[in-house]
Amino acid sequence: MPDAAAKPSPFVRFAPLLLLAAALATAFALGLHREVSLEALRDRQTELEAFVAANLPAAIGLYVLAYALSVAISFPIASVLTLAGGFLFGPWLGGAATVIAATLGATAIFLAARTAVGDALRARAGGWLEKLERGFRENAFNYLLALRLFPGAPFFIVNLVPAFFGVKLRDFVLATFIGIIPGTFVYASVGNGLRAAFEAGVSADPAAQGRALLFSPEIILPIAGLIVLALLPIAAKAFRRKPKAEPSA
Fold first, then answer.
1. Which of 60, 72, 94, 205 is the most exposed place for a label (fewest CB within 10 A)?
2. Cβ(176)–Cβ(103) under 8 Å?
């Protein structure tokens, strides 16, 4: 009698992840990592600004699509694109479009990884992985929110790890969306000031300026406070949890 709940074949499970990997390889083969740069933005400034002025909805749509795809395939151009969003659309509209796009792209790779290896990894998990999975299931939103708020957490890694621990899609999306807001708007604000940098010959790296601003006391201290608030429910839950009583002889 056939199994009604038969698992999908390995090809079906790995197809989304293989598709993203093929797209990443194609992007590198085409040299897009060299084409998407601040120099290209500077050289095409007049053309891009004219297109945005005449076709704002379409420009935002194309930007969100390009950004989401770059995040989904883990293409290393996110910093430049975030700066470009602030440059072309302003810090508020550009920042908002970037948050939406980054969340969409992160969700795509999260779902692909969960489909491909999440179940298989958990099936072979030992005790330590089961404990981590339990912790993520009990406090997934707070864990992820703290990781997203921390500027030093690699975005690509944080996209993948929750897929291995059975994190709910809702928790992943909400924690990602909320957690990336502070850093995104910092970079978008730096991008909004690129015109002055271009006029000065871009003597300093705007991406480096964005990182320096993000880690400045005025920015990092409030973010650190948000991280502490995100972790408080986890600490309180651990504090309230009492050890089980030893069984009587």
1. 205
2. yes
